[in-house]
Amino acid sequence: MRPLRPGVEPGAGAPVARVYRRLLDRYGPQGWWPLLSRAGRRGFDDRGYHPGIYHVPAGRAERLEVVVGAVLTQNTSWRNAESALGQVAARGLMNRRRLLACPERELADAIRSSGYFNQKARKLRLVVEALPTVGVPPRRGELMDVWGVGPETADSILLYAYHVPTFVVDAYTRRLAARLGWVEGRESYDALQGMFAAQLPRDAALYGEYHALIVRHAKEHCRARPRCAACPLLGAPCRGVCP
Predict the structure, then answer these.
(1) 120 located within any domain
(2) pTM for the whole thing?
(3) Residue 105, exposed/middle/buried by CB under 10 A (0-12, 13-18, 19+)?
(4) How confident is the model at residue 177 (pLDDT cuts 50, 70, 90)?
């Protein structure tokens, strides 16, 4: 199987790496994080996904788009967050200065489709305010000091907006790891993140692709009520612990 990109290939023996290969073989590159601002351009589909392109976002405006999306997708579907992102862009607010100058009530109205819009408007302003004004990534601790930002959102911002190699752990990741027998399910976020990091090369593109593949697999097969027929993980390395 081809590596994710030249020089980056998970080790052959680690179970985490074997699962990655199976998921990539089944689903192919996912093209995360989607950029609405590039939708329809060469290499991007009509929703801004970009399979096999790993150098984006590139530049302040695209990084901000990912940051805003990471906040808007909290506790909602990406479709709802996507709709809110479109409104932010349409109102000319995909700009640090304009977003911070926008009255909170007006910003909340723009992101209404994402749910919890009053809270998210406040969160957005605080997160954007905390971002460095130059192109360097923020520190993880500084992001998590922001009201309403937990490790998943902080790591999503670092990985997908700034290409910092930090593995994102979400509910889908925890579910898959528990069903494969890797964890009991009560482990801390940092412990689960460390398990993935210990078995994979430290590479942002690889981490991003793997996380996206887990989400895809969780939606197609590893649901709350799993659909095990034709699951690419049946047999080894899956230990048959799915209900």
Answers:
(1) yes
(2) 0.93
(3) exposed
(4) very high
Q: Are 199 and 167 spatial neighbours (Cβ–Cβ below 8 Å)?
A: no
Tokens standing for 171?
């509910």
Peptide bond into 182 cis (omega under 30): no
- Report the CATH number that the domain containing residue 127 is assigned in CATH: 1.10.340.30
What domain range is 83 assigned to?
Answer: 37-41+51-162
13 occurs within a structural domain:
no
Q: What are 8's strand-pairing partners?
A: 5
Q: Both ends of the chain: CA-CA distance in Å?
A: 30
User: Within a domain: residue 57?
Assistant: yes
Nearest-angstrom CA–CA distance, 204 and 209: 9
CA distances from 93 to 34, 48, 102 (A): 18, 19, 8
pLDDT tens digits, one per residue of 186-206:
899 999 999 999 999 999 999
C-alpha triplet 11, 13, 16: angle, nearest 5°: 75
Task: Give the per-residue pLDDT at 7.
Answer: 44
Q: Is residue 63 part of a domain?
A: yes
d(C-alpha 207, C-alpha 201), whole Å: 9
What is the domain count for the chain? 1
Give the span between the Cα atoms of 87 and 107, in whole angstroms. Answer: 10
Rounded to whole angstroms, the Cα distance separating 82 from 104 reads: 20
Q: Any residues with CB less than 8 A from the CB of 27 and at least 6 apart, and which?
A: 213, 216, 217
